[in-house]
Write a structure and sequence with these properties.
By secondary structure, this protein is of the alpha+beta class. The protein has one domain. Helices cover about 60% and strands about 15% of the residues. The chain has a two-stranded parallel sheet with strand order 1-2. The protein is elongated, with a radius of gyration of 14 Å. It starts with a strand and ends with a helix.
Length: about 50
Amino acid sequence: MHILFIGYGKTSQRVAKHLFEQGHHISTISHNRALLFAQVVFMVVQLCD
């Protein structure tokens, strides 16, 4: 499974490490890019309505 991971604290790092060790593919995204991504998704949903 490929997981998009948003989080940079110690707990987030431990969770990401645990998931990676289980064989999951991990991608990270910065907080600013996550906000931009959420705005784009919101606009697409609005256009589809």
